[in-house]
Structures are given as C-alpha cells and as structure tokens.
Design goal:
Number of helices: 11
Order of helices and strands: EEEHEHEHEHHHHHEHEHH
Distance between the termini: 35 Å
Number of strands: 8
Structural class: alpha/beta
Shape: globular
Helix content: 25-40%
Oligomer: single chain
Largest sheet: 8 strands, mixed
Radius of gyration: 20 Å
Strand order of the largest sheet: 1-2-4-3-5-6-7-8
Strand content: 5-15%
Length: about 300
C-alpha cells in the first residue's frame, strides 16, 4: 500500500399499486438442458480447486472483459464508481477474493497465488476471449498470478496504485515481522491508523477516509494478517517471467515517486500514469479523472490485441 506495505500497505423496497389486471399467461419453463442466464450484477458462485466458493458478478457486454480485482481487506464494492460507465461498452467482472466480501474464508493457506486462482476460477465461466485484468493495490500482484493461469485470454494488466516494489529488494523477515506485529496486537486500531495517516492526502475526502478505515478494520484478522504477510513477502521475479502482455499502472502521487527506471529493468515496457493530488483509493476519490485514464489504457490494449 505505502512504502512499508509494498503493494498495500474495502435496501430500498418499492411497492407499486395498480388496478387489478388479469394474470399474465404462464411462461414455459426452460428445457432441462438449458440454463437461465443470471441477471446482470447478480451474485454468481464458482468453486476454486481448494473448495472455496468464490463470489463474482458480471455486468455489461462486449469484448474485452474488464476484470476488477480489489486490494487487501477490501472487496469488489470498491469498484462501484467504474461499473456504470464501463458497463456501457465492455463486459465487466468483479471478484471477491477468498475471505473478502461475499467469498468464504474456508482456506488454510493464504497466498497471492491462491488469490490468482480465485480470479481464474471465476473467469472459467465467463466466455470472453479477451480479458484485461485491473487490480488495485494487492490486486496488482493477484492479477499477475491470474494472468499466469489465463494465458491466451489476457491481453493486458492495469494496476491501480500498485507495482511500486517491482525490482526492489525483498524485505527481511525481521522487517516483515516488525510491520505485522502491531496488527496482530491491535488489528482494528492499526488498520484505521494506516488508512487515515498513510492512504489519503491529509485532509482530503474525510468521509470517504473514515468509511474505508472502518470497513477495512472489520476484516477478520485471521485472514487479513496472514494475507498482509503474503503480500509483503511476494516476489515478482519468477511470476513476471511468465507474463508477455502489456503492464501499466495508474497511480497516485502520494508518498515516494515510482522508480520507473528500476521497474523497467524487470519490465522494459512498463509505464506509469500518475494522477496528481490523489490518494491510494483514486478510483473512488476521483472517478472523473480516473475513469478516462483507465479508458485510455483499456482502448490501447484492446487496439493492440486486435491489430
């Protein structure tokens, strides 16, 4: 999310009254071999190899499919500002990773690779031939792992405030332990401090910052703490050797600048788009600037894949 957390660091019922009408004619039930298509945005379930029931949702139509992957202690709802606009043109898929949102946490081994499998599992039932993976924070490394399992379908990866640690030395175990220990002792307090003090421009979006801090702090520590460790220890070196598609990041300018020269030693064509004045949750803070930037990168990847 920030430097200490590389890659780290989210009913209304209407009754209508009318005059009495004759009942509508009965609708024939679908044949036994037919499967009714779920309504747009309805919850769908796919079962990962380790038995986890992965919840995902599908919106819109068209190629390519944009697959939105959330970050640490967040969920698919953090992409809500992108759905109306991009659903007009593309198929959209949002995924809740194991232990997040509507996906169960019945897992004993927490790793970025397993999260990548969650995404691939959801997409096994999505027929699109072309996929662009869009990952926020931890969702960036998860997108890398998912792309390794979806070769031939993924045409690009777009990170959102992520990939900043590519090419940097991995932290030592002592350094990781030092970050983790306060969260083990007081997960709620440490998470709210992390969000308030490090993930937003000071004084900006106070209501959103408070909501996200509260939301993330309610993640189950039995999931969030080992996932944080897995993220801090994640090594991009080998996974990136499997990736041949374009990788771009749309990042905030909060914190230290991205060392693109170092990253390009690993990914020669890597490119960063920076949205000045934004914080870690730029897709929620400033969708008016973020969405056009995302559309530009999506169109470029789709155009390259089609040429």
């Amino acid at each position: 999310m920030r430097k200490t957390l590389p890659g780290l660091i989210s009913a209304l019922t209407v009754f209508a009254c009318s005059r009495q009408e004759p009942p509508p004619p009965p609708v024939a039930a679908p044949a036994a071999h037919e499967r009714a298509e779920p309504a747009p945005g309805a919850s769908r379930i796919a079962i990962a190899p380790d038995g986890v029931h992965v919840q995902y949702r599908v919106y819109g139509a068209g190629e390519p499919a944009l697959v939105f992957i959330h970050g640490w202690s967040c969920d698919s709802n953090y992409w809500r500002e992108q759905l109306p606009e991009f659903g007009k043109k593309y198929t959209l898929v949002t995924v809740d990773l194991a232990g997040h949102g509507g996906t169960d946490g019945n897992r004993t081994e927490w790793s970025i690779a397993h999260f990548g499998q969650d995404v691939a599992t959801a997409l096994s039932a999505v027929p699109n031939k072309q996929i662009i993976l869009v990952g926020h924070a931890m969702g960036g490394p998860v997108a890398i792992e998912a792309a390794r399992l979806l070769k031939g379908r993924v045409i690009g990866i777009i990170g959102v405030d992520t990939f900043k640690s590519i090419g940097a030395p991995l932290p030592s175990k002592a350094q990781v332990d030092a970050v983790i220990k306060p969260f083990e002792a007081d997960f709620i307090g440490q998470t709210r401090t992390l969000v308030a003090d490090h993930l937003f421009v000071k004084g900006a979006h106070p209501q959103l910052a408070q909501k996200i801090a509260y939301d993330m702090s309610l993640s189950p520590p039995r999931v969030a703490v080992p996932v944080m460790r897995a993220l801090l220890e994640y090594d991009f070196t080998e996974p990136l050797k499997d990736i041949a598609v374009p990788i771009v990041a749309i990042n905030s300018d909060l914190g230290e600048p991205v060392n693109e020269a170092r990253i390009r030693k690993v990914l020669p064509k890597f490119r960063t788009v920076t949205l000045p004045g934004t914080g870690h949750f730029l897709m929620m803070e400033d969708p008016q600037r973020f969405n056009p930037a995302l559309e530009t990168e999506v169109a470029a990847m789709a155009g390259s894949a089609g040429s």
